[in-house]
Amino acid sequence: MSKEKIFIAENNPFTAREIVSMLEQTGYVVAGQAERGEMVIQMVEELRPDLVLMEMQLRGQINGLESARKIHDDFDIPVLFISTQADTLTMQTAMLARAYGVLFTPFDARELKFHITMTLYKHRMERKLRESEERYALAVRAANDGIWDWNLETNEIYYSPRWKEILGHKDDEIAPNPIEWFQRIHPDDQAQVQAELVAHIKGVTSQFQQEYRIQHANGSYIWVLTRGLAVRNAKGAAYRMAGSQSDITARKLAEERLAHDAVHDALTGLPNRLLFLDRLQNRIERTKRNPNDLFAVMFLDLDRFKVVNDSLGHVVGDELLITTANRLKHSLRPEDTVSRLGGDEFAILLDSVRDVADARHVADRIKGKLMTTTLLGNVERSTTASVGIVISNPRYTSAGELLRDADAAMYRAKALGGNQHQVFDDTMHISAVDLIRLEGELKRAVERKEWLIHYQPVISLTTGKPVGVEALIRWQHPQKGVLLPTEFIQVAEDTALIMPIGEYILRAACRQTKIWRESRNPHLWVSVNISPRQFQDKGLVDKVAQILSETDLPGSSLRLEITESLAMRDVNHTMKLITELKTLGVEIVLDDFGTGYSSLSYLKQFPFRALKIDRSFIRDIQPGQNTQSLVTAILAMGRSLHLEIIAEGVETDEQLAFLRSLSCDSVQGFLLSHPLIPDDLNGLLG
Ligand code: C2E
Ligand code: MG
Ligand code: MG
Q1: What is the distance between the alpha carbons of residues 117 and 2, in angstroms, rounded to a whole number?
Q2: Ligand 1 test: best mutation among 616, 648, 670, most atoms within 8 Å of CB?
Q3: pTM recorded for the entire structure
Q4: What does the pLDDT read at residue 236?
Q5: What is the pLDDT of residues 270-280, one digit of tens each?
Q6: Labelling 615: which of 70, 147, 289, 381 has CA 20 to 30 A away?
Q7: Ligand 3 centre from 12 Cα, in Å?
Q8: How far is CA 203 from the centre of its chain?
Q9: Straight-line distance from the first to the last Cα atom of the chain, in angstroms, rounded to the nearest whole number
Q10: What residue ranges line ligand 1, CB within 6 angstroms?
C-alpha cells in the first residue's frame, strides 16, 4: 500500500471530507488541509506533502492558479486540480498553473487513485529527466574530467567512471557515498577541503574549488582540482551539489619543480643564495631568544677553480663542483645547510656550535674530505679551498652581514695562500677595504709602470761564477715605498692585472739581459717567473716569440719559471706549452720544487730544463740536523730526472758547503747576492 502524503486545498468542507475518506480508503495519508491560498502555501512548505489536490477556484489573497504555480516552482511538489468545468479556460488555467492534471467532479475513489498515481509517476519522471539533463550538461563541460553529483538530502553521491578512473579504480569499486571521496583525501588537505565544501553549501562562496591531494589506488597521492556548484531551492538551501574532478598532478609537479628551482642551484641541487639567506635569517631570529645558542657561517671558495674550468673545460669544472657539493654535504649534519652561492663559492650554515673550535673542527673535516683525489677528466687531483668562518653574536641582525663577514674571512684565507680557514675578526673589514684600494692602486701602477726589476744571480757551484739571473719584480709605490711581490702578486693574479705586469717584466728582463750579454757575460741567461694566469694564456708562446725578436735575444737565453703545482694542474697543457717554447729555444724551470704533491712519474714526462729546490728545504740545512737527508732525497730525485738542479735561498756557508758536497749544480741566495737593480749588479757579472 502506498503511503504518499496528500495535501487537500479545498473551499468546500463537504467536498473536502469526501476526498479525505476516499484517500484513506485507497491507502493515502492526508498530510493536511487548508481553505485559502496563502494558508495552503504556508502549510505545504511546512508539511512537504508528495502531492497537492487543489480546488481550481480556490479563494484567498492568493488564488488557486498562483498557489499551484508557487508550490510547483518553489517546492517541486506536483499539484492536481479539481474542477467542475471541463472547458478550454479550465485547461488553459491548469497549464498556466503548471498543474499535472485536472480531476472533474464528480469522481470516485478509483478515479482519484488513478489520477494521483499518474501524477506522482509523471512528476518522478520529470525530476529524473531534469537531473540527468543537469548531469549531462556538467559532463559536457568537464570533458576529460571526472563528474560527481551529490544528493545532499539522501547523501548519495554519483561518481562518473572517469572520476573513479582518475583514482585508479574501476567503476564498481567505489560505492556511491561521500566517504569514498573524503577518506581518500590527504590528511593534511582534509580540513581545508571540508571547510570549503561547507562554506559553499552554506552559500558563503559562489562556487566550490579546491586543489588537493587524494590517494590513488596504487597508494600514492595525486593532485586533483575539484570544482562544484550547489543547486539550491527558493530559500537558498542547497539540496544537491555536483561538479568535476581533474587530475592536475603533472601541473602541480611542474609547479613544485619551478618553486624548487627558484631556490636551488641547478647544477648541484643545493639551496641557492636566496634560500640560504632565508634559512640564515630564520636562524638569527631563533637565536634572539637565547643568545647562548650559537651557530656559525662558513664561506668556502675553491682554490684555483678558474684554472680547472679554463684548462680542463666546463664539463670537468662542473664535475668538480658536483663532487665538492657532495663532499660538503657528507661532512655536515642533516640540520646544517650547505648552499652554492655561485661559481665556486659555497656557504654553510652550521646550525649549532659550542664555540669557534667546533667550527674549526668542521673546517678541518671539510678540508680532509676535499683533499681526497678526484679524477678530473683524465687527471687525478685533489681540491683545496679557502674557508672563512664567522660565529654568531647578538650584533648580527641580518643574514647579509654574517655572509659578508664570512666572505671577508675567506678572502683573508685566500690571501694567505689558500687551503686553510680563517675566523672572522673585526680587522678584516679593514683588509677587505684595503684589498679594494690595492686593486685600484695596482691599476694605476700598471698605467704608470711603477715597476722596478731586481735581479738575483744564479751562481754555478762548478765555476763559482754567475751563469744566469732571476728577474724579481718590485713595486715602486708612490706612498708606501718599494713593495715585495708577496704583497701584491696574488691580487694582480686574481684581478688579471698580472697580464700586463707579466708582459712588462718579460720585455724588460729580455732587454736588460741583451745588454749584459753584450757588455758583461755573453752566456748569461735570465729566468722570469710566470704566473698561473699567464701560463694558461693561449697567446703566451706568441708573446714570448714577439718579445725575443723585439729585443733580439736568443730564445736559449730565456728561462720561464713555473711552480710544480701549476705544471701538474693540466699535464696536457703543460706538455704542449713546453714543447712549443722549446721550438723557440726557451726552457722551462720547475720552481719551488718539493712543495707540491706531484709524483716523479708525472714529472718524468716533462722536458724541463732545471728544477729549483724550494728554499724551505735549504733553510732546514743546519749543522747536526737530520733534516739534511730530506734535501739529499730531493736532490737524488732531481738527479734521477736528469735535470739541472738549482738551490734557492742559500743564506749560510754551511748550506753552501752541504749543497756543494751533494754536487748541486748552482745556487741562489742572500749569501751570494740579494736581488739587486741592474746598476748594482754590473760588477758581479764580470
Ligand atoms: P720565487 O720565484 O721562488 O723567488 C725567489 C724568492 O726568494 C724571491 O723573493 C727572492 O728575493 C727570495 N730569496 C732569494 N734568496 C733568498 C735567500 O737567501 N733567503 C730568503 N729568505 N729569500 C731569498 P721575492 O722577490 O720576494 O719573490 C717572491 C715570489 O714572488 C717569487 O718566488 C715568485 O714566485 C714571485 N715573483 C717574483 N717576481 C715575479 C714576477 O715578475 N712575476 C711573477 N708572476 N711572480 C713573481
Ligand atoms: Mg722563481
Ligand atoms: Mg722559488
Answers
A1: 10
A2: 648
A3: 0.48
A4: 87
A5: 999 989 999 99
A6: 381
A7: 127
A8: 42
A9: 139
A10: 456, 472-473, 484-486, 489, 502, 505, 529, 531, 561, 591-592, 615, 648-651, 668-670, 675
